[in-house]
Amino acid sequence: MVGRIRVLASRIRARFAGGRLDRDFGEEIEAHLALLTDENLRQGMPPEEALRVARLRLGGATQLREMHRDLRGLPWIETLAQDLRYALRSLRKNPGFTAVAILTLALGIGANAAIFTVINAVLLRPLPYAKPRELVTWRGTESLLDIDDIRAQGRFFASGGGVNTEVMDYTGGTEPLGVYAGYVDAELFQTWAVPAMLGRTLVPEEDRTGGPRVVVLTYPFWREYLGGDPNIVGKTIPLSGNRYTVIGVMPASFVAPEYGVDFFVSLRVVFPEAAAYRGVHFMRSYWRLKPGVSLSEARAGMQVIDARLAADYPAEDKGRRTVLVPMQQWVTGEVRPALWVLFGAVCVVLLIACANFAGLLMARTVARRREMTIRAALGGGRRRLVRQALTESTLLAAFGGAAGLLLAKLGTALLVAAKPAALAHLNGISMDAAVLAFGSVVAIVIGLVFGLAPAWSASACDVADSLKQEGRTATAGLAGASFRKMLVVAELALALVLLSGAGLLIKGFAQLRAVDPGFNPAHVVSIDIQLPATRYTEIPKQIRYRRELLATLNALPGLQAAITGDAPLNGNIMMHSLAFEGRPPAALGDEPMVDTFCVMGDYFRVMQIPLRAGRTLTDMDREDQPLVAVINEALARSYFAGLNPIGQRIRWGRETGPPRWMTIVGMVGDVKQYSLAQPGSPAVFTPFAQSNEAWRRWMSIVLRMPDARLIPEVKRQIWSLDTEIPLNRMQSMDDLLRRSLAERRFNMFLLGLFAGLAITLAAVGLYGVMSYSVSQRTHEIGIRMAVGARRSDVLRLVMGQGVRLAVAGLAVGILGALALTRWMASLLFGVTPTDPATFAAVTLLMMAVVLLACLVPARRAMKVDPMVALRDE
């Protein structure tokens, strides 16, 4: 048989002798003949007959010459075309194998490409500013006067400016709206270096106290509220009771670092009180480094400036430290760790998919042993066979990559739709050339790297031995089985690492959801409003409006209303320094800082915040009554440890004039003001009526209502008192709680999804290995049963093999998980990265999946008929 095939191969080469082109064509004929001969052998033909029929099917010399003419061209193109055509024919003849391999890779590559799309848009793509690598900011905020001093002293900055987001009223539409204004100084636009699309940006001549009221619009505000008017520059719009002249519109590509800003106005014009007060540290500042200045040099220079400001202004700047960070790092700081963890997770999924892919190729290699042997007998060299096998694996990977990119496009759309608030301000999250290049390179590398071992195994064959019926798969089967077992061990280990991370996130999320927020959020709605400065400058007028508003709302049946300065989880909480009667005054800059809230009405009853001692604030605590305050337990623990705080007196630090001592009349439970993950911080509650802060014109109306259908009536009652008061951020407390958990829920869901995918792929790989093992050991199982082995013995035999693989994989996986889950510490709450209960639970779950994957092959082995098995062999 071997000799006949080799003689035929030499005749083919002689017929087409002369040049590389003819040699390549001869190899193509060899491949055709090998494939046809193998098909005939599988149909049960004797070897001589199989070869004869294959020659007849291949055709005569005329047909061969036509094929030869079709292959004319450059040699490397001819070879590639031959390999690709042969690979396509081979894959088309095995649709089941082809579909499973493509689907396996599509899942792995698709998940990777989807997460990489987000990482590319968020972490890798430069910010839409000129020379973005020169832009820096720092953790914390500054006052405008501090920013001016840093500009004057910071010789390493080319420019710098600050911005603070505040609500302003826009009354140019059908109903008053609360929109977000960026209070800036003019040099901020010079720092960002983004020119206006229409008109211009703010200039220093306009950025002064008493300067003209001008505004620079963002593109979304211009399109949504002003209809995209191309002639808007020079026109005026109504904002908070004043007319502002539009001087420019920013381009659509401009993304403000302060999320949600609708337009920009001068802080010195709109809020001169804050601009002139060094203690108002509420501006986020951005700086552009001078060319040639490194970040470390700027950080060293800022330490000198910090020390100088602390010495010159200890009351406002003592103890303040600036930590410079690249602007892109700060913009993406909240999501950066989570994205890299998710990317690591999908890389694990991809590795498992690659292991499955390599296992499939190895199984196919064993099944094609006879075909490869015939091709070797026809004269195909080892290099030629490896090249053909790599062509098939790379072609499969290319199809898998294409399908994966299609899945990634759908997955990216779902990710963008479900993105948490931390990603909400990042636009342009979509697939681009970088993502396509990433997916293509990954697919090609997978095809070459993970197809190499099966290709090398396929080319290693003993022609004389392999053509014998009894030796056709023995050696290759053993080698392939060992290789696939190693792959399954690796898959199980990787899946356990991913499942451990998901388990830690799930447990942490469950613990976070169980945290008591300190109030009852059920049926509570908050509405933010701000009184216009033009009509509510005086404190008595502000107090009168609030009282009338509460009386009107509480008259509605079934509704309870109160007012607070800032509702829980709503942000923008004010802080004050505190002094205690009978204690030595703290040095300037060392006073304790506490959260401060002004309230009106029965706020603690409406929010159902528990009273721990004393009483709450009532309507009797008016402006003409002794000053009172309520504190929370965190403040009592921090500053009245071992003492009864009721009756103690406190006042605001650094206040001018005679001291205004407030008597503590009550203590309430701690409220999670910032997030469920942060402990309650020291807080003081005072009555609005006794506040001496005319600038505190904003407030949150909290309403406990059993029926949301009362909302339209609430709006009518508010506007019945003042038709130009806008309603901002109307939201339920339940929604606020869900929103505060959104990012952790997003991370938990994705990592859990990837872990589930990894387990599924690992289980499929284990099932394939066990099924193949059972088919290879059919003869052995038949002999065992013939000599008296029971079905339970066969079950233990097969399940034992699977359990041994699982134990090896889980042992490696536990070690890997213990090392790698430490990187997730910042994403966890109330659980350590090495939590024993979580690791025990995920190990038991993996063992259950392993046993299930082994059960089907084991049951098939139990049903083996000894006589049939022996006859088959």
Question: What does this entry look like structurally?
Answer:
The chain is an alpha+beta fold and 873 residues long. It is built from 30 helices and 21 strands.
Could you write a compact summary of the structure shown?
The chain is built from 30 helices and 21 strands. By secondary structure, it is an alpha+beta fold. α6 runs antiparallel to α18.
Structural class: alpha+beta
Helix content: 40-55%
Shape: elongated
Averaging pLDDT over every residue, what do you get? 81
Low-confidence stretches: 15-25, 60-74, 469-478
Report Rg: 37 Å
Could you give the distance between the termini?
23 Å
Count of alpha/pi helices: 30
How much of the sequence is in beta strands?
Answer: 5-15%
Considering the chains and any ligands shown, give keywords for the structure:
alpha+beta, 873 residues, elongated, six-stranded mixed β-barrel, ten-stranded mixed sheet
Layout of strands and helices, then pairs:
Elements: H1 2-15, H2 20-42, H3 47-58, H4 61-70, H5 75-92, H6 95-124, E1 135-138, H7 144-153, E2 157-170, E3 177-184, H8 187-192, E4 198-199, E5 214-217, H9 219-226, E6 236-239, E7 242-249, E8 263-266, H10 267-270, H11 272-275, E9 284-289, H12 295-312, H13 314-317, E10 324-326, H14 327-331, H15 336-367, H16 369-377, H17 382-417, H18 433-459, H19 463-466, H20 474-513, E11 524-530, H21 539-554, E12 560-564, E13 574-580, E14 593-600, H22 603-607, E15 611-614, E16 628-632, H23 633-639, E17 649-652, E18 662-668, E19 683-687, E20 698-704, H24 711-721, E21 728-732, H25 733-740, H26 742-776, H27 778-786, H28 791-820, H29 836-862, H30 866-872
Parallel strand pairs: 3-8, 5-7, 14-19, 16-18
Antiparallel strand pairs: 1-9, 1-10, 2-3, 2-9, 4-7, 5-8, 6-7, 11-20, 11-21, 12-14, 12-20, 13-14, 13-17, 15-18, 16-19, 17-18
Helix pairs in contact: 2-3, 2-5, 2-16, 5-17, 6-15, 6-17, 6-18, 15-18, 15-20, 15-26, 17-18, 20-26, 20-28, 20-29, 21-24, 26-29, 27-30, 28-29
